[in-house]
Design goal:
Layout lengths: L5 H13 L14 H12 L4 H11 L8 H12 L6 H11 L2 H10 L1
Length: 109
């Protein structure tokens, strides 16, 4: 009977299997950072969804050739997780708009 339980038992088993010369190693997440991050988020979620959403909104910029609806959808996906009030969201939304749209908005006044 084994005294190893849970994750320790699994790690011990993998270590024993890895030393078997006839064993073909399984693909590992250790070789692919993207796969590792996806697995980490799958099991544990975003460590701080609000902060991640804030960073994404700060980096989100509408391109001149991009349709405004695409920008609005991407913005809305992250805005709901920030906890910001409407004034802060308005400012961040405006800051990320394409310059040509900002110019058109200014000419409406």
């Amino acid at each position: 009977m084994s005294v190893l339980h849970g994750i320790v038992s699994l790690q011990h088993h993998h270590a024993l299997v890895a030393t078997d010369p006839g064993h073909i190693p399984e693909p590992s997440i250790h070789n692919d950072w993207g796969v590792f991050v996806n697995q980490l988020n799958t099991y544990f979620g975003q460590p701080d969804l609000a902060q991640a959403s804030e960073c994404t909104l700060h980096a989100l910029k509408m391109q001149d050739y991009q349709h405004v609806n695409k920008y609005m959808i991407k913005f809305s996906e992250h805005a709901t997780h920030t906890g910001w009030n409407n004034a802060a969201l308005y400012g961040e939304f405006y800051w990320g708009l394409a310059e040509c749209i900002k110019d058109q908005l200014l000419s409406l006044d």
